[in-house]
């Protein structure tokens, strides 16, 4: 009975590891194929995080079943990746928007630029200025909290999608 | 079941190669930073699977270490790209 449970858990862990590796491959595929920094960070953040969480859970179960050791490093790594990988993607996307990395031409909405414009913050307006302002951090708004407030306004406000061509 | 682990390691290496393509080609710095972050995460997963493949727990400190280093590198690069400097918590108040 115990042998059967151990066998099932071991193959379940192998299935989890294989699923996680496949999710990482799909994440890399999205990173190559998607047209835009923001869409690429969608692929690089979400499916990559799920992939590494699946792999680490699988390795933890593998060691728990085959060696009867509960490895705390792996558990700590699961929690750490769960917290930090989306946070890094968020920071990267915000930095990209503020330094004026252009949106994909098929994008129909840029709520952060609208909100910054409505609040009077001189956001670099990624859809307008293009990549020419990448090396100009002096265009940053002088007060970072103000931009955060503008972002908070953007999520709460209901507006028709502006035509940001 | 060693074969499954080997296939997973090969798939993860393939994913790292795909991210490396984006690092080399990416039109903006943010592309490269996102791809480098994904590479760090994939390397941590690869090290964990390598530990399962060799049936040794010696590598598992490395998973956490690589994760922390990749996260700190991503944060530092993103802040540098956004503000022009990395450590600016002290001079936020005296910004002109």
Count of individual helical segments of chain A: 6
Q: How many domains of chain A, as an integer?
A: 2
Q: What kind of oligomer do you see?
A: heterodimer
User: Would you count the extended β strands of chain B for me?
Assistant: 0
The Rg value of chain B, from CA coordinates, equals 17 Å
The SSE string of chain A, one letter per element, is: HHHHHH
How confident is the prediction overall: mean pLDDT of chain A?
77
Identify the biggest protein-protein contact and residues per side: A-B, 61 and 55 residues
- Terminal-residue CA separation of chain A: 65 Å
Shape of chain A: elongated
Low-confidence blocks of residues of chain B: none
Q: How many individual domains of chain B?
A: 1
The SS-based structural class of chain B is mainly alpha
Quick summary of this structure?
The complex is a heterodimer of chains A (165) and B (96). Chain A is mainly alpha-helical and 165 residues long.
Characterise this structure.
Chain A: Belongs to the CPA3 antiporters (TC 2.A.63) subunit G family. Chain A: It comes from Saccharibacillus kuerlensis. Chain A: It holds the Pfam family PhaG_MnhG_YufB. Chain A: Residues 117-165 are annotated as: Disordered. Chain A: It is found in: Membrane. The complex is a heterodimer of chains A (165) and B (96). Chain A is an all-alpha fold. Chain A folds into two domains: 2-98; 111-156, no CATH class. Helix content of chain A is 69%, strand content 0%. Chain A is built from six helices and no strands. Chain A has helices spanning 2-33, 37-66, 72-98, 111-118, 126-129, 144-156. In chain A, 40% of the residues are buried. Chain B is mainly alpha-helical. Chain B has one domain. Chain B contains three helices and no strands. At the A-B interface, α1, α2 and α3 of A face α1, α2 and α3 of B.
């Amino acid at each position: 009975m115990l042998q059967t449970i151990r066998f099932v858990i071991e193959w379940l862990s192998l299935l989890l590891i294989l699923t996680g590796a496949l999710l990482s491959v799909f994440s890399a595929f999205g990173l190559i194929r998607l047209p835009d920094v923001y869409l690429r960070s969608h692929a690089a953040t979400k499916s990559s995080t799920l992939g590494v969480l699946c792999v680490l859970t699988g390795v933890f179960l593998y060691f728990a079943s085959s060696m009867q050791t509960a490895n705390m490093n792996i558990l700590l790594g699961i929690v750490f990746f769960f917290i930090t990988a989306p946070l890094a993607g968020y920071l990267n996307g915000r930095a990209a928007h503020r330094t004026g990395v252009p949106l994909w031409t098929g994008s129909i909405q840029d709520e952060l630029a609208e909100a910054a414009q409505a609040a009077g913050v001189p956001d670099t307006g990624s859809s307008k200025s293009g990549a020419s302002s990448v090396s100009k951090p002096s265009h940053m708004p002088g007060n970072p909290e103000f931009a955060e407030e503008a972002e908070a306004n953007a999520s709460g406000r209901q507006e028709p999608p502006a035509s940001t061509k | 079941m060693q074969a499954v682990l080997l296939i997973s390691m090969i798939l993860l290496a393939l994913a790292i190669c795909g991210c490396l393509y984006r690092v080399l080609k990416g039109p903006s710095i943010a592309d490269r930073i996102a791809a480098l972050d994904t590479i760090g995460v994939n390397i941590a997963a690869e090290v964990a699977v390598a530990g399962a493949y060799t049936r040794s727990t010696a590598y598992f400190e490395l998973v956490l270490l690589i994760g922390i280093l990749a996260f700190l590198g991503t944060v530092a690069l993103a802040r540098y790209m956004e503000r022009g400097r990395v450590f600016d918590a002290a001079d936020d108040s005296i910004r002109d």
